[in-house]
Amino acid sequence: LLASQGVIPKPNLSKLLKKKVELQKGADEVAVIPETVMQSADVPGVTVRDEEDQTRFAIEYFASERVPAALIAGAVLGLMFAYPLQDADSPRLALMKRVYMVLTTAAFSHTMLSVFAASLAIVRLLGHAHEPIAKDPLLMMLREVPLYFLAVRTHYLTGVLTFTLALAVRMWTEYSTGHPHFARAMLCLMIGTLFFMISMYNITLIHFKSFVHLWTSYVRCIVMRVTNRNPKYGKPAGPIAFIAFAFTALALWELFFVMKFFVVDILDG
């Protein structure tokens, strides 16, 4: 009535409808997350907050994950080329060097993906194209930016684990010849650290059963965004995603033949 009398400006219905669609877009993405995850808000022993704007807490989370991931990526970058391949290497040493390079490259890739996803999530949240009200930041992120949240969580820990495993391989390769007991001690220490990190990670998860469950949810989210062209689930991934998958598969195929060659050479020798 006030708008018709010129007291207040008439609302732009097209803009309001567009804003509503934008707000629903992020919420619809939650369809790729199992319902049991979203229904586990009131976990026993966990303090449940009143519903409020969780945007600031979500941005702080992504920023806190981005910094250590970037530091680890920088550290790994300096180690990737510190173990050069030599033609005179024995088959066993050549294999271990290649395993080390694969692990360090994987660690660098995972941590960089974590940094990238965290940056995208922050930009998305700063755009306010989401529903910010939730009981806690985790539920809001799973509901509004599930792909970015799962990407940061999975790639960050996977990068840390592959980095730790790469150091274990390097210590074993360096000290196993001439110092076998010391090499085994260092290897066991690094492997123990790796499994302890996984254990600590699993017991701190609230909305997921384990690290494996987190990864399967992330893969399911990616598959949904690539294969489902329904706008209901947000903007679908374009052909670049298929190119990324193709090159990743090609890399794994080539690595299989490389590792197979050296393993067969070692067994025959």
Written as H for each helix and E for each strand, in order along the chain, the element string is HHEHHEHHHHH
Radius of gyration: 24 Å
State the total count of DSSP E strands: 2
- Rounded to the nearest angstrom, the distance between the terminal CA atoms is 90 Å
Give the uncertain stretches in residue-range form.
1-11, 16-28, 35-42
Provide the β-strand percentage band.
Answer: under 5%
> Helical proportion?
over 70%
Class based on secondary structure composition and strand pairing: mainly alpha
Query: What's the rounded overall pLDDT mean?
Result: 79
What does the main sheet amount to? Answer: 2 strands, antiparallel
Q: What is the count of helical runs?
A: 9
Order of strands across the main sheet: 1-2
Task: Tell the overall outline.
Answer: elongated
Please provide a written account of the structure.
There is one protein chain. By secondary structure, the protein is mainly alpha-helical. 71% of the residues lie in helices and 1% in strands. It is built from 9 helices and 2 strands. Strands 1-2 form a two-stranded antiparallel ribbon. The chain is elongated, with a radius of gyration of 24 Å. It starts with 12 loop residues before the first helix and ends with a helix.
